Amino acid sequence: MAELNPKIKAALLKINFVERYEKLSARFSAAKTPPDDRLIYMDGEEVMAMIRAAGYLPRFDTKEKFYRIKEEHIGKYTFNIHIILRDGIVELVWVVEEDGVLLLGAPWSTYSRRLIDVNYRIKNPVFGTYEDLEEILKIVFEMYEDFKCTLM
Fold first, then answer.
1. Which of 90, 95, 134, 140 has a CB 3.0–4.6 Å from the CB of 80, allowing a cystine?
2. How far is CA 99 from CA 12, 20, 93, 102, in A?
3. Which residues pair with 73 in a beta bridge?
4. For the chain, first and last CA: distance in Å?
5. Which stretches does DSSP call E strand in the chain?
6. What is the pLDDT of residues 6-47, one digit of tens each?
7. What is the pTM for the complete model shown?
8. Domain spans of the chain?
9. Residue 45: which H helix or E strand, with range?
């Protein structure tokens, strides 16, 4: 598995990414929301409204089936979030470029393995209601803002 860019690694460590992601995963776990209780079919407009209410401009990529937050350009950095909602599970990808060079573009589930150990895994958050999803996104966006501030 490829090493994290040193700037990305430092920012993730500084915001306590692993600890925060573990806490999110434990709070919204498969054990707490078994498959039969998961929100499988969602109203895309409701999800879009939820993301807009959090202060972001979403777009749904119909080909790849994920929500993409409008790119944000800050100095030499470009930031983006991809949110994949499938079978009541949230998969997240942060995309970061510096002067057009990709620094990060992998799912969150790989960050802990790249920071700690290749065998270390944190499960994706699971949701059963729109309220759960809204709370997950609130935490994700807080972490995203902390990450951006720390990286810059």
1. 95
2. 20, 29, 19, 9
3. 78
4. 26
5. 58-61, 66-69, 72-74, 77-86, 89-98, 101-107
6. 899 999 999 999 999 999 999 999 899 888 899 888 888 999
7. 0.90
8. 6-151
9. helix 44-53
